[in-house]
Every structure is written in C-alpha cells, then in structure tokens.
Recover the amino acids of this structure.
C-alpha cells in the first residue's frame, strides 16, 4: 500500500513538471513583452527624435563635405588634400550628430569616451603596422610628394597614382593592373616621381658606311612626327656606342606612362620604316676570320 502511494505521488509530480515549465516560459515572454511595451511607451518620442536628428545631421554632413570640397577646388588645392579635408569634415560632423542623438535618448557619452580611450590604447599596441600606414598616409597628404595622375616608382613598382588614402596608395599601370602600396613603404623610401610621363629608351645599330650624324637627324625628325612624346617634350637622339659591327644610336624620350609599351612599339616601327626608306642598313653581328697557312 505504501509503495502504491509513493508511485502515485511520483506520477503527479511528473505530470505537473512540464506544466510548470510552460507557465514559467509564458511568464518570461509576458515580462519581456511588457518591458518592450513600457520602453516604447516611455521613449518612443525620444527614439523618433534621435532618429530624425541623426538622419538630418547625416544629410547635412554630406552637404558640408561637398561644400568643403568645392571650396578647396575653387582655391586650387590639390585634389588629394581636398578629398581628405572633405572626408574628415564629414566624419567629424557625423560624430557630433551621433553624440547629440545619444543625448536625446538620455544616454551619457562619458562612459563611451572612456571605453574608446581604453580600446584605442589596446588597439594601438596590436595594430602598430596599420597605424604606421595611417601616419604615413597623413604625411603624404600634407607634404604631397606626389599627387593623383603622377607616375611614381617605389620598391621596384611603377604606376600612375589613382588614389591616395590614409592606409595605402593605389597605382595603375598600362595593363590596367591595380597596385596597392601600403603608405609605410612609401614614406622614408627612395621615390621616383616623373609626373605624367615615363622615360622610354631605344637603341638601333647602323652600318659604319653611313654618316651617323645624318641618321641622328633623320631619327629625331621621325620621333617628332609620331606624336608619342609627352608633356615634358624631352627628346634626345645621339651616338651611344661604336660597337664591333655597328654604330649604336640611342633615343631617349618621355612618353605618357599609360601608353608606354604602345609608344615603344610605335617608335620601333617608325625607326625601321625611316631607315628602310633611306636605304640605311641595320647590320647583324659579324666577324672576319683570317686563316694563315704555314709551310
């Protein structure tokens, strides 16, 4: 009999267990629902006001950024520096609007500032390389050793500057290959800046039976007629070497970097046509061998 009572009591507890758990879950959901309703009832106007302030402020930040960019361009500042000032202005305005919006919700920004300071200290130690890139980028924007459109060579990489950002500089070559160079590898390094153009060096050999000075004049006239010389308008044609089988003539000219190889192939085609039309021989390497017989 006692055993039967214990079994019945166990069955009753088991049957009431899931019901109690379900009731607790319903109570929790109801409490969460009540908290949400109470929050939106008390802070709905603050949320709407903060959202409106942030949207209006963000749109105002964009307009101020555009105005700063136009003002810098009107005063003929460098495009890279102008974009940096415009983006920095927009970021500062957005930060100010965010602080005002949080204040509208009754949220104090003082703990956030303290947390940001602590996080910044830890991030500064962990991201030294990235911060070095940003510091170098800031130096490039202020000192301006090059601007957008210049042709630079650094660490064996050559390309036209497409964009200068705080972390890296974007270059582009004739093959439309985009090259990203971290700014810390630019500042403090040997930098070649040839503005819009690159140096193109060509050589050709002519036979010793021709007058090299006349051929130099012919090649100079040919290069000027090809329309491949850049804004620098630099052209040098002269005798480079008296080699074993030919007189080597050299041509040095500045041509737009974006069409460097196209200009090279066009120049060599023009050289061949001019020499062929003037009946000037391009000798191949040769050597005279004399055999002496002895009795």
């Amino acid at each position: 009999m006692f055993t039967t009572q214990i079994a019945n009591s166990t069955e009753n507890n088991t049957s009431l267990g899931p019901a109690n758990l379900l009731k607790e879950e319903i109570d929790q959901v109801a409490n969460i629902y009540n908290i949400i309703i109470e929050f939106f009832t008390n802070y709905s106007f603050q949320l709407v006001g903060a959202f409106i302030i942030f949207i209006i402020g963000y749109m105002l930040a964009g307009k101020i950024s555009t105005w700063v960019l136009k003002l810098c361009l009107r005063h003929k500042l460098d495009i890279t520096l102008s974009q940096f000032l415009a983006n920095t202005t927009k970021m500062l305005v957005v930060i100010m609007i965010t602080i005002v919006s949080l204040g509208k919700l009754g949220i104090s920004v003082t703990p956030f500032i303290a947390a940001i300071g602590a996080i910044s200290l830890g991030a500064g130690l962990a991201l030294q390389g990235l911060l070095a890139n940003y510091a170098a980028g800031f130096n490039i924007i202020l000192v301006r050793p090059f601007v957008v459109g210049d042709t630079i060579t650094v660490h064996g990489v050559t390309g036209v500057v497409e964009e200068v950002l705080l972390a890296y500089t974007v270059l582009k070559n004739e093959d439309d290959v985009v090259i990203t160079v971290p700014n810390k590898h630019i500042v403090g390094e040997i930098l070649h800046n040839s503005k819009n153009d690159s140096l193109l060096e060509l050589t050709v050999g002519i036979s010793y039976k021709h007058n090299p000075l006349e051929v130099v004049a012919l090649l100079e006239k040919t290069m000027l007629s090809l329309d491949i010389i850049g804004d620098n308008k630099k052209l040098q044609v002269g005798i480079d070497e008296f080699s074993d089988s030919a007189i080597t003539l050299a041509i040095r000219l500045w041509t737009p970097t974006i069409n460097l190889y196209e200009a090279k192939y066009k120049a060599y085609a023009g050289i061949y046509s001019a020499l062929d039309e003037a009946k000037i021989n391009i000798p191949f390497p040769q050597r005279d061998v004399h055999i002496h017989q002895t009795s």
Remarks:
- The domain at 197-277 is CATH 3.30.70.100 (Alpha-Beta Plaits).
- Strands lie at 151-154, 157-164, 168-172, 178-182, 192-193, 197-206, 235-242, 247-256.
- The radius of gyration is 38 Å.
